[in-house]
Amino acid sequence: MQFNFKIKLLLGGLIFFFFQLNLLRGQCEDRSNYWEESWKSCETSSNPNSARSEGHWLLFEFNEPQAIGTSHIWNANRSGESALGAEEVYIDVSVDGINWLPLATDPFTWPRATEADNYEGFEGPSFESFGFIKKVLFTVVKNYGDANCVSIAEVKFDINPLACYGIEDICGVCDGPGLITYYEDADGDGLGNPWVAVENCEQPDGYVPNADDPCDTGLYGWSDMQILFEENGCTGCHSNSGASGLDLTSFQGISAGGDVCGNEILSGTNLVGIITIPGYDGCSRPIGFPSMNERVGGAIDENEIAMIQEWINAGAPFDCNCPEGSPDADNDGVCDASDFCPNFNDNLIGTPCDDGMACTTNDTYRTSCNCEGTPIPDSDFDGVCDSEDQAPNNPCTADGIIGLPEPQDWVAHSTNDCDEDGIYLKDGDQDDFDACIDDEGITLSPECSCPEGAIQSGGQLKKSQGVWSTTAFNAEGISDGVLTNGIGWNAFIELTYPYLEIGQQICFDVGFNNAEGGVKFEINELGSYKFYNQDTSKVNYELQNFCFPVFMAGEQRIRVTRLVTGAVRVDGSNYEHCPCNIADPQFEFTSCYCPNDFTTGEGSFVSGGEFSNPENTDGAPDGNFSGWINGEDSLILSFPELEPFTEICVNIAFNNAAGKVGFDLNGKYFEVVNPSGSTDNSEGQDICFLTTATGPQELIITEEGWGSIWVDGAIYKTCNGCRYDEDNDGVCDEDDICPEGDDTVDIDNDGIPDACDPCSTVGQACDDNDACTVGDMYDEECNCTGTFADADSDGVCDANDICSEGDDAMDIDEDGIPDACDPCSTVGQSCDDN
Fold first, then answer.
1. Is residue 507 within 8 Å of residue 495, measured between CB atoms?
2. Helix, strand or coil for residue 697?
3. CB 498 within 8 A of CB 558
4. 389: number of CA atoms within 13 Å, CB side?
5. E strand or H helix that includes residue 87
6. Could you give the angle at the alpha carbon of 328 between the alpha carbons of 322 and 332, nearest 5°?
7. pLDDT category of residue 346 using cuts at 50, 70 and 90
8. CA 793, 795, 797, 798: dihedral to nearest 10 degrees?
9. Cis peptide before 107 (omega within 30 of 0)
10. Which residues lie closer than 8 Å to 274 by C-beta, 6 or more apart?
11. What is the Cα–Cα distance from 202 to 240, expressed in whole angstroms?
C-alpha cells in the first residue's frame, strides 16, 4: 500500500523542512502526523528486502537520492500504546533503489517511549558512510509486548545540503566544467596559441583561456595583415575588383599584386614603398601623388608599417608558424609547426574510430591525435564502468563478492569501509576487507585478538558530585549487586576505562526510581548515549542492563547522569578485553610485563591500632589474619626501596559486600571497594596496585566502607632487568638491535639478528640443482650459487667429462675416445710396418 506521509528533514542542522511526498510505504495507513498519531502496522506482509522474512516493515523512498547523515527517532508514544513500540529493528538502505545493504548485522534495540508530553525520542543511527540513499527500510522484529500491532511515531533524517547532488567533476567542483583548456601566451598579449594547450583545473602562469593568437611565436601571417588592412580602410578601394587590380581582402589577391607591381609587390620594400612614398616608381611605372597612406589620412602608423615589412621579410607566409619551405612530416598539408598531430593525418580529426575500450561510447579521433570515446558512467566510482560492474552501486566490489580478488580495473575508494570496522581506507586501514585489521594491524578488540580468552573488567571511579562518597565507589568494577545511592538532579559519577577500540561495548547495570526516568552516558565530553526506563514496572531501582559502543579509540571517560526525571542508581559496568593488553587494567602490572622473570619480596609490619593480632600482617600472606579493623584503626606496613611500577599486593578479607579499604601509599590516597563481594572474613582477596615513585614505601591501611576488614599480609613483585622487552629476548627495548625477535640468533654471523635479517642464510650450504657446480652456498643476496668444476680445464664440467685426464675435444683418430684417454689414438693413420 502506498500513501502520502509527512516526514521531517533537518538540513544543515539549522532549518526544518516538511515534505509532502510519496516517501513511505507500509502495511497499515493511519494518517500519521508526528507522535500524536503514530504509524501503526497490524498485519504482516512480504518484505521489500527479500533477505528479510514476512513481517511488519516501514519503507522510506525518496524522490531522488539523499545524503543522509544522522537520524532521530520517536518510538510509539500515544497514551497507552508504548507497548506497540518497536524494540528490535533491522535497518537496511538502498542506494540504487534495487539492492539492499544492512546498517548492521544484528537488529538495533530501541528504547521504549515514555508516553509523556515532553518525550524527546532518541538518537538513531548514522547513514553517512552510505553516501546518497534512495530508500531506507525499517523491519520490526520485536515490540514491547503488544501481540497484534507495532508502531513508530516519527523519524527525522538529517540531510547534508552541502553534498553534491549533481556530478562532481574531476576538479572536485559540483556540476563543474571539469578540466579547462588553457593556451600558451608566449608573447604576453593576452591571446593564446591554438597549437600549444594544456588542460587544468586552474589557469597556469603564461596561459590564457582563449585560442585567438595563431602567431604567438612573434611571426606574422596573413590573418594579421588582413586585419591590419581592414582596420585602416585599405580594403575599401582594394577589393576583388578594386583600384589598380590590387585585392587586399585575401591572401591570393595580395599575392597576385595588381596592375603595377604584379607578384613583385611582396618582395623587397615594394609594398611599404607604395604605401609610404609619393610617386613611388619601384616597379618601373610611377604611382601618382600622393602616397597611398596619405590618401587614407595616414591611417597606417609606423609600427604597422614595420609589421608589414617584417611579414614580407619572412617570405609573406600565409600561416605565421609555417614560412615557405616549412617541413610537413606527415604530408597532410599542415606544416609540423601548426600540426596538431605531426605524425597523424589531421583530416581524420572528428571522424569515428574504435578506441578498443569496453567502457566508452561515441569513439572519435580527437585533437589529442588519439582515438577516444566518452566514458560510460561508473556510478560507484570504483574504476569499473556500470556495464561491466556486477554491483554498480557498491564501491566495495565489482564482481558482486566483497573481498579480493576484484577485476583488474577495480580501485578502492579512499572512503571505503568494506569491513565496517569504523576505519576508512583513507585513514590507513591495512586490510579493508578484514574487520580485525585496522590502521595499526590486528585490532585490540577481544573478538579479534583473543576470541577464546577474553576477560571482563569494570571502570574506575574518577570523581562524583551529589552522590554519597561512601557509595560512589560502588559504581567501580563489574556489577556485584551493590549499588550507589541515588544520582538525582545536578549529580553525576564519572568512571574511567583504559584504551578501547572503536566499536567495543561498555555495559552498565542501572536502576530507576521513576517509570519515566532515563540515564545519560556522556563519552569523553564528545557525545552521549541516552536510554529510558525500558520496563516501567521497575521503579524500585531494579537493575536493567544498557550497552553502547565506543566511538573513538583511546582511554574512555564516561559521566553518568539521570535523564528527564527521578533518580538512578548504578551497580557497576563491564567490558571485555584480552589479558595483559592495553585495554586491561592490569596491563602495567608485573604479572603482565614479566610473568616469568620477577623478584618477590614481603611487606613488614610497622604498627597497628586497637585491633588484635597486628603481628599476623607481617610478611607474605599465610592464612593467619589480623583481628578486625574498622573505625579509627589503621595498619602501617613498610617495604624496602622500590622502583616505580612495582606491584604491591595486600591480602584482605571483608565481612560486607559494600566493604571498602583505604590505602595511603607515601601520601597518595586511594580506595578500593570489595572486589569480589565476598563476605567470608576467612577468605582473603589480593588487592594489587603500583608504586609511583622510587624509594622506601610506607603503606597505611584503613577501613572506609561498611563492616570490617582483616589483613593477612603483603608482597611485592618487581621485574628483573629492564621493564620493557616486547620480543622477550632478554634484551631491553632501548638496547635492542632487533625489536622483532631474539638478538642472539644470527645463523650467518653477519651481525644482524635473523629476525631482522633479509638474508639470514649467507654462507650456508645449499643445492643450486646444477650438477656442474660444487661448494654450493647462499651468497649475500640470498642466491644459492656454486663453483664450476672442471679439473682438466677443457671447458667440460667434471660431471659431464668423458675424459677427465685431458681435453675431450682432441680425438685425432675420430673414434669417439678423447686422445688423453685413448690407448690407441692412431687408428687409421698411415704408418711403416718395416
1. no
2. strand
3. no
4. 24
5. strand 86-94
6. 110
7. confident
8. -40
9. no
10. 260, 261, 265, 280, 282, 287, 291, 292
11. 46
Contact by Cβ (8 Å): 754, 764: no
Q: What angle in degrees, to the nearest 10, is found between the helix axes of 222-231 and 302-313?
A: 150
Q: What are phi and psi of 83, to 5 degrees?
A: -70, -20
Q: Which among 156, 115, 174, 190 is positioned nearest to 10, based on CA atoms? A: 156
Residues 739, 743, 747, 750, CA torsion sign = positive
C-alpha cell at 460: 574506575
Query: Hey, what's the cell of 699?
Result: 603503606
> Among 681, 642, 686, 682, which residue's Cα sits nearest to residue 665?
642
Is the separation of the CB atoms in 762 and 748 below 8 Å?
yes
Place of cell 550497552: 547
497, 563 contact by CB (below 8 A): no
Q: Residue 825's pLDDT is what? A: 67
**Cα separation, 826 vs 811, whole angstroms:** 10
Phi then psi for residue 804, to 5 deg, are: -80, 0
C-alpha cell of residue 370: 588519439
CB 361, CB 371: distance < 8 Å: no
Indicate whether 549 pLDDT > 70.
yes
Give the residues across from 16 on adjacent strands.
10
Are the beta carbons of 699 and 665 closer than 8 angstroms? yes
pLDDT value of position 517: 94
* CB environment 265-299: b (16+ within 10 A), e (fewer): bbeeebbbbbbbbeebebbeeebeeebbbeeeeee
Binning the chain into helix, strand and coil, the percentages to the nearest 5 are: 10, 30, 55
CA–CA gap between residue 717 and residue 695 (Å, rounded): 15
Asked if residue 473 lies in contact with residue 509, where contact means CB atoms within 8 angstroms, the answer is: no
DSSP 222: H
Q: Which helix (H) or strand (E) holds 302?
A: helix 302-313
Q: Are 709 and 660 in contact (CB under 8 A)?
A: no
Q: Contact, 682 vs 583, CB < 8 A?
A: no
Provide the 3-class DSSP secondary structure of residue 334. Answer: coil
Sign of the torsion formed by the C-alpha atoms of 529, 535, 541 and 546 = negative
Measure the CA dihedral 690/695/698/699, to 10°.
0
Q: What residues contact 497, with CB distance under 8 A and at least 6 apart?
A: 459, 460, 506, 555, 556, 557, 558, 575
CA separation (Å) from 311 to 88, 215, 270, 316, 575?
86, 12, 13, 5, 87
Give the single-character DSSP code of 386: G
631-676 pLDDT, tens digit per residue, is 899 999 999 999 988 999 999 999 998 888 999 999 999 888 888 8
How far is CA 723 from each of CA 216, 299, 584, 588, 590, rounded to the nearest angstrom?
A: 73, 95, 17, 10, 9
Pairwise CA distance, residues 641 & 251, whole Å: 105
Q: Which residues of 403-415 are buried (b: 16+ CB within 10 A; e: fewer)?
A: eeebeeebebbee
Cβ count within 10 A of residue 499: 17
Report the DSSP beta bridge partners of residue 459.
477
Distance between CA 673 and CA 475 in Å, rounded? 9
Residue recorded with cell 675435444: 809
Q: What are phi and psi of 290, to 5 degrees?
A: -80, -170
pLDDT at position 815 is 74
Strands (E), 740-790: 773-778, 784-788
Query: In the chain, pLDDT over 90 holds for what percent of residues?
Result: 42
Our CA angle for 122, 559, 117, nearest 5°, is 30
Note the pLDDT of residue 509.
96
- The Cα 321–Cα 333 span in angstroms is 13
Cell 590573418 belongs to residue: 223
CA distance 8 to 23: 11
φ/ψ of 647, rounded to 5, equals -90, 125
Element (H, E) at 292: helix 292-295
